[in-house]
Amino acid sequence: LSTPCSEQDHQNLEAMKAGMFLRKVKSRMWKRPRHYKLQEDCKTIAYKSSWAINSYSTFSISDVEDVREGHQSEALLNVADEFPADRCFTLVFRGRRGNLDLVADSAKEAQAWIRGIRALMENMENMDESTKLDHWISDWFLKADLNKDGRINFKEAKKLLKMMNVDMNEEHACCLFITADKSESGTLEDQEFVEFYKMLTERTEVLDLFQDYSSDGQSLSQCDLEEFLREEQLEGEGSYEHALQLIDRYEPSDTARKNHSMSVDGFLMYLVSREGSIFNPERRGLFQDMSQPLAHYYISSSHNTYLMEDQLKGPSSIEAYIQALKRGCRCVEVDCWNGSNGEPVVYHGHTLTSKILFKDVITTIANYAFKASEYPLIVSIENHCSIEQQEVMARYFRDILGDMLLTNTVDGVSSELPSPERKILLKGKKIGNDSESPTGEVSDEDEAAEMNKDSPKSKQNLCRELSDLMFCKSIHFHSFEHSRMSAKPDEMSSFSESKARKYSKEAGSDFVLHNTRQLTRVYPSGIRTDSSNYCPVDMWNMGCQIVALNFQTAGMEMDLNDGLFTQNGSSGYILKPEILCKKESLFNPENPEEHEDYHPLQFSVKVISGQQLPKLKQKEWSIVDPLVRVEIYGVSLDQAKQETKYIDNNGFNPRWNETLKFTIHTPELALVRFVVEDYDKASRNDFIGQYTLPFTCIQPGYRHVHLLSKDGTSLHPSSIYVHIKITQL
What we know:
Strand order of the largest sheet: 15-14-13-16-17-20-21-22-23-12-24
Oligomer: single chain
Low-confidence stretches: 410-414
Strand content: 15-25%
């Protein structure tokens, strides 16, 4: 492994390889020493408790997303008086895995780990695809070499095939083994193993395609590759220049590069790269007009952001805000209640969920608001506090958020909300401007009130100091007619999912029209105490901007949210399609074919093969029987699912070669989700991986779909290989 090269880096890595005791901290009471050491591969960290003889557990450096220094987590803040900041650090993992809070014996030791891990992470970030592949192969070699003699015998090779999800008959495996064993030693050394692996993973379906376009059967000239890009990938102008760029970027052989040609290895490298993926790279970065009024954008939004688990007894945590903001969320929720010592707290009122300090939440929001996106963050306030504690809230907002706060309330002049810019906007109750008094009465219109439907609507006292900081005013929704006549652009109503559904069925185009001018927030029904989610697509179809989901709950609904917001620089703001922004033309998602711009498309997906699908944790002993399902989400007419048949016992390189066809009536609102499952005839199929993207971001031609785990993290190098065709109907 090419490790970082400065002398200091070298010393840090040596110290990490020697291993040392670090204290793992979970709370004030739970602080235990564990022995941590960096493995020889410089990619894995092994750890064990002091009493375990030699059973180490491990995690990979590539699972670490961030290293925080000092007291930057709740657990470490709790022990701040006991351990100084310069000995403390936190490892943050990708996905929904909990943080690891550690305390070293000295500041010097802490720095060795902090700098060492950061250097290794940077090293991995900068690796090109072929180096990543070599690493992946050497990882398997280390796993397979059970007796650690640096070579693999046939028995170890068979075990390895099982680990890799390959079910191969003994004869075939033996044949490959003998071919790879050039030295005829009965074992495979380093380079022989690489050959064995390459023969195993040979992609005949890619080789066939390569040969269809190669003039000499050996390589693709720049002209051959240009023809492939035009004919199959449907690239237009600039294909000739693009072909040369691809050769320079992906061809491993210097000779071929100098001759402006591409070998089959380079061709495969291109196909599995980001450019060869199904997601159009031109839509990854910021590409939309960001100067339109806020009501014209979908805004990535979280519900009860402070919760890590369920809504009844789960923990509330600052970490939940950090996770949501890092995922590009642009609307977070803060439920405020009276706390002891005059300090307001945040939790799910009237339940056993734990409480966190309001000031800690606001400090965290200030620190993380613009880490993932430069665009506005809306903080939705549910205020249940006394006048005294509301004054404390107002002070914290002003002191902690300072200039980030946008408070100049929209006056009567502007007819629209402003366009997105780097500011924090507060949304909550406001007192009317008709009286001068420092407090005023407002009706209780929030979710807590919605859940207690039987109780009459109560009035609440609000202090003007807090009221004046609110940029968006929460108001009760009367009717579309009423809001058309009298609503101001800074007023916003919240609907429970069932109410939003009712209006969409009864008055679809009125709802769409309302959402061209006003912001609408939708939240999960109060009975979802397990923090489950509703399907956000029905709400997006109506043009609702703030469709709040429980970010902490993985599943199809969050896949759709992640899928929609992956485009446009993951900024958390997506410009709604024109059909949902035009005030003149009435679009109704229930009958899209009546709209003047109706142009349906045929979407055809040939599911060709799968690559290195992961084994299922709960079934270590068995090899998967994979199938692929393609799901379309969008207007009701477009909702559809089709699946391939399953392949017996092959997660390694299953071949389906099946074509699934769909009609897409409203392409600009459609999302496509690819799901891979392990077929089980006795019970529900098990989830293997998925990938979701907007229909408008799909690239036609031969593409790889890179699978993600249930948590939305990469399952590299697992993928499915497809051919995509989109035609006018």
